[in-house]
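Issue: copy button drops trailing tokens. Both records pasted manually instead:
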Amino acid sequence: MREDFLHYLWKYKKFDFTNAVTTQGEKVLLIDTGTHNYNSGPDFFNARVKIGDQVWAGNVELHIKASDWYFHQHENDRNYDNVILHVVWEDDVEVQRRNKSTIPALSLKNLVDRSLISGYQKLFVSSQNWINCGKSFKNTSSFTLRHWQERLYIERLEEKSVLIQDLLKKSGNNWEAVLFQMLAKNFGLNLNGDAFLSMAQSFKFSVLQKASQNNLQMEALLFGQCGLLEKQLNIPYFLELKKEYAYLSHKYKLSNLGVIRPKFFRLRPDNFPNIRLSQLASLYHKHRKLFSELIVSKSLEVVYQILEIETSNFWKTHFTFQKKHKERRKSLSLAYKNLLLINTIIPLQFCYSKAMGNGKVEELISLMEQLPPENNKIIQNYNELKKDCVENSLHSQAMVQLKQRYCEFNKCLDCAIGVKLLQRKA
């Protein structure tokens, strides 16, 4: 028995509430179960129940055993002074508030249909499946799945907003600087994301705005701050970068002491830090008003055109400073552009929209639905469980959120799919 199951029973009234009686022998009439609280404090706020002849309005706390009240030290916490009912599975001890008044207790142990308990155990208590409801997931209706995926995606956007809000605070609410920092992080991908972000935070955005007028200076700024110009090489292009960086470093008092050095190990050559930094430099040299161009764009074609960039000429024949190869164009692939849309542009548009007071997400959802789904092990596994489960990027982002925030933590009863499957079993 888990506490989240008690939450489910109370929230959805999945017990014989017509015969509910406190362990003190008073009849309980359930008027309103209240609002489920997922943060600290009582489990349900603003509930309304009639106990005996008295109607009570306040909070409800749930525990497996009544004695858990004392184990969690609620008797000393003023946040629990307004608890009007203690809902438990097993009432093993009388509990009191801080003022020593007794809290009525309702035990659900004998009020729940055994088939519901059995269904819960079969569906969600399994260590053999990739996810708890793996065998039943295919039975999820398309209506339930699509609505839950949309909610999961908004939840994921909210999580991504945390970093954006933190960067805004550190930059003095400079949206252009935050766009650069987020782009830098995502140009670095998983391996070098933190390194590129630390580089982007190591100088004022005004320095970038001035350097962006000259592509060589832009590259010198990014390469130098990442520590990629610290070798001694007798290569004309390298020496030019080093000279420009020395000038910028002196003029703007730059320092890269706290910048994480990017890695090359186990990267495909197209993802080498110098290739991605050259592309990022080209983007800002080509688009001086990048934020205003991207933030208002709701067209994939327009965004794709903005991101139609490539490296400077030197990197068309090099992956490193020293090794030359046959000339070829190194631009952003369509998949890479989509990655930037998913992880930078759309989350920033979401945050900016909220900050401007409209908070509309319909256009962003439409954009995500136009993007192809990501392809990773999580998506592959869900598609094996249910055919056509993931058809676009909104779906794939939602299912990653589902796996990482719900399935991994056995939060089946906070999941719309889990609740529906349990109701069907019952």
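Record 2 (pasted manually too):
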Amino acid sequence: MVTIINFKERNKEDGTSFFVLEVQGGIEMVQSKVTGNFYATAKKAYLPSTFDAMTCQALIGTQMQGSIEKEACEPYEYTVKETGEIIILTHRYCYLPEENEKSKSTYDSFKTSVETFSLNDKHEMANV
């Protein structure tokens, strides 16, 4: 389950603008690699929309089925707001609707399974 928590205006290459919805997943506990202490966090992602600002504002607080997943991408620079440090990231977070989550897990299970079948009394292995 994700919640729409905000929206932002973005510009296309042609100069026209559109709005993205900022969605946030549930609370997660993460352990610091430096201190070993746990802290609470939540993944966020942005969804492009066809809505105007008034509609986006009205949608804040709406919950939707799905999750936010980490996805590999081309390296890019990111500035840490608190410190001003510039780091290189190779991932982003994207929204995955619930039906896609089910399809993905079914596909992954199917893809990695190996089935035995009989053909003319010979048992062969097929990597599906």
